[in-house]
């Protein structure tokens, strides 16, 4: 492989590496840091320019006074903290052990192939989380059980709609409506119905992008941070629409 | 009381963490962080009469500082541990009241007094929700700026 081909191959791989991290919920400064660390392990100077949907990797060949750039589209996917940890570890491993590009590529594929948590396990844990939320807000045992069932139903619908590649905003509206509609059964029982309603949709709150947005702004990646927060606001608006639908149906039970 | 609070916060932290697919080894540490953070906030608000925003900032700082050694032990970036741990402290009740007030404001738009009442309630709840989320994130991120070298090397294994 001649020098030009090597630079192209490195730029292509770094683009893939950075875009996967951006897509799976890693905050911007970490993506930049990991990518630069990886390029350092190949003794190559690199600059990263990031936007919400695309990123550009520029690899500098100082001897030939040439820059090779790769524009990569960011594929958005579910939040995968397991890849956040493993891809960050990969950059350190490459730097410390002077791995070749082929070795890094092999380890990258292995990291991405690592098994994820079973969807049923996530569903049960998310439902238990919302049940606990209900308890923390002062809900009684009946409200906790209702919230568990409501969350399990809403979350199951969300998993199905995500699998069917439905529009993300539509998924949020439908899941929020389903969860809050089931939680509205608490209006007909002697229980803490307001708390049950309030907690039933909390599993949809986009907590990771919210915190990532704030971190990005604090660390100087204002444009991406604001974009993330605007996306979060849209998602919260979708939750409000779903919840609002239920509140309008059961309005007479509220007063 | 604090133990029960911490226990349920730990379950909530693990549950919301699971949605983000963390490494399996991270769950224990997420639970610990969520428990101590939420228990501290409850203690500050209940015993020392702190407001929810200041108490959340203190809890965020505690979670941020504790995530550094725990991240080192688990070889996970601090964000993988502290973001799920912060989620049980998102003020859901205030967020719900904002949405509820917004709907009632729209429905009573023709009645000036009632709509103004719901508008005021909407802004009050919305401001609390936003400020608590912002302060939680700032509090948890603060230690990363104090100890950047430690925070950026969590996933580094032994050099060969």
SSE topology sketch:
The complex is a heterodimer of chains A (255) and B (160).
Chain A: H1 3-23, H2 28-41, E1 45-50, E2 54-61, E3 66-73, H3 81-97, H4 101-113, H5 119-136, H6 141-163, H7 168-183, H8 193-200, H9 207-218, H10 222-249, H11 251-254
Chain B: H1 2-19, H2 27-46, H3 52-74, H4 78-86, H5 92-107, H6 112-146, H7 148-151
- Structural class per helix/strand content of chain B? mainly alpha
Specify which chain pair forms the largest interface.
A-B, 59 and 54 residues
Helix content of chain A: 55-70%
Radius of gyration of chain A: 22 Å
Order of helices and strands of chain B: HHHHHHH
Unreliable stretches of chain A, pLDDT < 50, 5 or more residues?
none
- The low-confidence runs of chain B, each spanning 5 or more residues with pLDDT under 50, are none
Strand content of chain A: 5-15%
Report the biggest beta sheet of chain B as strand number plus sense, adding barrel if it closes: none
Rg estimate of chain B, integer Å: 18 Å
Total strand segments of chain A: 3
Overall geometric form of chain B:
elongated
Portion of residues in helices of chain B? Answer: over 70%
Kindly report the spatial arrangement of strands forming the biggest sheet of chain A. 1-2-3
